[in-house]
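hiii, so i know i said id send this last week but things got crazy w the move. better late than never?? heres the sequnce for the chain we talked about at the cafe, plus the structure i predicted for it. fair warning i was half asleep when i ran it
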Amino acid sequence: QYISFICDIGCVSTGKPNPEPYKLAMKKLDVLALQSLAIEDTHVGVLSATNAGIKTIQIIDRLNPSMLPSKLAWKKVFNFAEIKELVNAI
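okay and structure toks below
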């Protein structure tokens, strides 16, 4: 009921870090980047979303040290409760 569109690698010709997945999703949902918020866990994902002009929250995986925080992320969080707080504050 909450998900109206899923954009996976089969929907685009160029995947992340290219912004194409996010641009396609915004087009399908008829929203602008300013109306969007991305939640990503990797630098490649953050790069894709920010290159599409979307404010991006990165979830930092404390158990996987190879998943480094991205300097491009608008905010960095460690769990979904922190995301909920950020979204409620917007």
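btw The mean pLDDT is 92. thought thatd interest u
miss u guys!!
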